[in-house]
Design brief:
Protein name (chains A, B): Transcriptional regulator, TetR family
Radius of gyration of chain A: 20 Å
CATH topology of the largest domain in chain A: Tetracycline Repressor, domain 2
CATH class of the largest domain in chain A: Mainly Alpha
Shape of chain A: elongated
Oligomer: homodimer
Number of domains of chain A: 2
Number of strands of chain A: 0
Distance between the termini of chain A: 74 Å
Largest sheet of chain A: none
InterPro entries (chains A, B): Homeodomain-like_sf, HTH_TetR, Tet_transcr_reg_TetR-rel_C_sf, TetR_C
Pfam families (chains A, B): TetR_C_13, TetR_N
Keywords (chains A, B): DNA-binding, Transcription, Transcription regulation
Structural class of chain A: mainly alpha
CATH architecture of the largest domain in chain A: Orthogonal Bundle
Number of helices of chain A: 10
Organism (chains A, B): Actinoalloteichus caeruleus DSM 43889
CATH superfamily of the largest domain in chain A: Tetracycline Repressor, domain 2
Chain lengths: ~200, ~200
DNA sequence: CCCGTTCTGTACCTATCAGTACAGAAGTGT
DNA sequence: ACACTTCTGTACTGATAGGTACAGAACGGG
């Protein structure tokens, strides 16, 4: 049995190029011609390898979650609740300020969309929620281990942390530098100047 | 001199309808047909009254800044730094959870865009920066008045607050409720559970 | 009442959108 | 070397994007 002409490009490598485009321009801001140009392949190759624009985006998101977005999961391995939070936020700062374009794909690629961007938008929303859920479970464990006050709601703290993480991503899109965002993390960890010691 | 047929609609009222659409769908996610349909006017009327899509968007943003986005400026009038911050964040929570669609126009209408959305995106970024600047000046004054520690950088605190404000807007887009976001504000104000008293 | 001016509605423009048909190129297994 | 399969490149599809020409409707001033 014959096996056919082999594909002339590496699917994962070109997926990374698509990732860059979606990251910078968002789902609806990216045209197929932007993708084929950046990926160095033509339209039928794209469709045969990835399905269509929406499925390509889904593949991109998955790759982002395992690559740049992986700092969240990594942070959960830190030994204490405070260390988890610090690693998570410092990881966020690093990712959102790494490229010339700033920000986080999960946040900016499809935050508000028209009808055709509805599915990608909902999927990103789901990714954000699931990240928060993982953090919450880790903090819950910390509380069970006595690493956090017993009267503290782990869900609230997780939401607080993720709010800042997503906010850092927004800050990066309008030009905040890494040093500036690092100071945000420090202020987060130490609390506002009027903070009192925990009861 | 003749004066011509009067316009058959109220420019500001229809602008509010356009605001709703851009708020929900973002700049690039909104088609002209979405706008004309929601505004109840036809294309030539839209062009003659507002210029084009980009200028209409600019008018919408201005109106947003004076309406829903006005809570920031209002918060600056509070007497103490802490009260300013609390009012600002509580105002954010209210705005981003008010409609069935969540979020903040400044954040979500054009965060990452293609080429044609570049100007709107940059303008929103500029609005976000200028909001932070106003808060920073207010906090600077608070520090001068002894309302904040002398070694505290007002720019850092302002950035910290705006990071959370923008993060709240993102949270709202994936379904966080008002009660949940209110607890984020409370955690922000009290600091994380491991916070120590300010030196 | 009627002229001049401005708005409204229809119908159209070009460009671009996502997606695909089809023919030829480039391989592999026999 | 040949047959079979799969990929690549060109060229196209219908739909929709933002934007506009033009004719007629609706007013105000004289």
């Amino acid at each position: 049995m014959a096996v056919g002409r082999p594909r002339g490009f590496d699917v994962d490598e070109r997926l990374d190029r698509a990732l860059e485009v979606f990251w910078r321009q968002g789902y609806e801001g990216t045209a197929l011609s932007d993708l084929t140009e950046a990926m160095g392949i033509n339209r039928p190759s794209l469709y045969s390898a990835y399905g269509n624009k929406e499925e390509l985006f889904r593949a991109v998101v998955l790759r982002y979650a395992e690559g740049p977005g992986g700092h969240l999961r990594a942070a959960l391995l830190a030994p204490t609740a405070r260390a988890v939070v610090e690693r998570l936020l410092r990881g966020t700062v690093e990712v959102v300020t790494a490229r010339d374009h700033g920000g986080c794909l999960f946040v900016q690629a499809a935050l508000a969309t028209g009808e055709q961007g509805g599915r990608p938008r909902d999927e990103l929303a789901s990714w954000r929620r699931s990240g928060e859920l993982e953090l919450r479970r880790r903090l819950q464990r910390a509380r069970d281990e006595g690493d956090l006050p017993g009267d503290l709601d782990a869900a609230d703290l997780a939401r607080h942390v993720m709010t800042t993480s997503h906010g850092l991503a927004v800050q990066a899109t309008h030009g905040a530098t890494r040093a500036e965002l690092d100071r945000v993390v420090e202020l987060f960890l130490s609390g506002p100047p009027w903070a009192e010691s925990p009861a």
